[in-house]
Design a protein that fits this description.
The protein has 359 residues and is an alpha/beta fold. Helices cover 36% and strands 16% of the residues. The structure holds (3S,4R)-3-hydroxy-2-oxopiperidin-4-yl beta-D-xylopyranoside.
Length: 359
């Protein structure tokens, strides 16, 4: 058992309950369905965050600490310390560790694509650099990270373009960088589960593009083992129908499906939208809003339980509403309430809807 937790923190968890009984553990409640994960930074490995992590979660993802910009400072200097703290914590508490992420247009330093004079590398040079980077990172975490989001967000929103083209990876290498990343990751460590990860995959247009790309990769023998549906849903977009359809379609490829970055914003749909049109006012967290969120989480988890044979992990993008990226994205400073625990670390109505179900 991993419950290595101080008495004080245990008391906080157990007394923070508005009901008579102790707060059920998410991880235990979902033990027979799938591991439940959370994405955090190393600062959350202490205090109340860590108490919730230990009690409720069986999987960990680095919210930022394993991204390229955090991992490599220059061609001569890697920086694994923060990522290692997360891996140490996961091991200490019997949690599995997901790696996020190796190849992404965002949070990768501009110099990575260029030579020392600032000129873009050639396609061959950039692919070589990618290969070198992937080998360094996978060698470093060998045996300690069971799955990686190898490529993140390579597919464009909408129907005008298939791939995201206005990014350096594509500009220099064309679409080939996607396959190569998987080939290099597999050669570096054939034991790791390799995922393609993206958002808005409940949207049929984007969903079908990802399906097509992954199908082609499988047909060509490229080592790809899973599709990560980020999540990042809103009260308006996700529903029983579009979520079920996406999971079924991806699973029909014979790959694993994971929900890798789950949160549900209380603000309107925001992917691929003109930010100036989005409402800026902060919504108060009223009982009505709490109920809407709870009902949505109930709907989502009903589907996830029903499809659990196709799902090998569900990871929340954060632990409590106190620290959620959505309070600064897409509108800076607009408080959001997308997770199961509130900013005082208390379980929300949504939490109870997720744990209180009839088998
Ligand atoms: C976000 C982090 O949560 C923020 O702290 C950071 O400033 C930007 O990145 N899709 C992803 C994640 O794959 O890596 C992003 O994480 C959220 C969207």
């Amino acid at each position: 058992m991993k419950k290595n937790i101080s008495l004080a923190l245990t008391l906080v968890i157990l007394t923070a309950c508005h009901k008579e009984a102790p707060i059920p553990s998410l991880e235990e409640r979902y033990e027979k369905y799938f591991p439940i994960g959370a994405a955090v930074g190393q600062k959350q490995l202490q205090g109340l965050d860590s108490a919730l992590l230990i009690h409720h979660f069986s999987s960990l993802t680095a919210e930022n600490d394993m991204k390229v910009s955090r991992t490599i400072k220059s061609m001569q200097e890697f920086s694994f310390t923060a990522g290692e703290h997360l891996v140490d914590f996961a091991e200490r508490h019997g949690m599995q560790m997901r790696g996020h992420t190796l190849v992404w247009y965002h949070q990768t330093p501009g110099w990575f694509y260029r030579d020392s004079l600032g000129h873009y590398l050639s396609k061959e040079q950039l692919l070589q650099r990618m290969r070198w980077y992937i080998h360094q990172v996978l060698d470093h975490y060998r045996g300690r990270v069971y799955a990686w989001d190898v490529v993140n967000e390579a597919i464009a929103d909408g129907s005008a373009m298939f791939y995201r083209q206005n990014i350096d990876w594509y500009r220099v290498c064309g679409q080939e960088y996607i396959k190569k990343a998987f080939v290099y990751a597999h050669e570096a460590d054939p034991t790791i589960k390799l995922f393609y990860n993206d958002y808005d995959l409940i949207n049929p247009v984007k969903r079908d593009k990802v399906y097509k790309m992954v199908k082609k990769m499988i047909d060509e023998g490229i080592p790809i083992h899973g599709i990560g549906m980020q999540g990042h849903w809103t009260l308006e977009d996700v529903n029983e129908q579009n979520l079920s359809a996406a999971i079924d379609l991806f699973a029909s490829l014979g790959v694993e499906v994971q929900i890798t970055e789950l949160d549900i914003s209380v603000y309107p749909y925001y992917h691929n939208m003109d930010r100036s049109t989005l409402p800026k006012e902060v919504k108060p967290y009223t009982p009505e809003l709490a109920k809407q969120l709870a009902d949505k989480y109930e709907e989502v988890f009903q589907v996830l339980r029903k499809k659990s044979e196709k799902i090998t992990g569900v990871t929340f993008w954060g632990v409590t509403d106190k620290k959620t990226w959505l309070s600064n994205y897409v509108v800076k400073g607009r408080t959001d309430y997308p997770l199961l625990f509130d900013s005082l670390y208390q379980p929300k109505e949504a939490f109870w809807k997720v744990v209180e179900f009839v088998e």
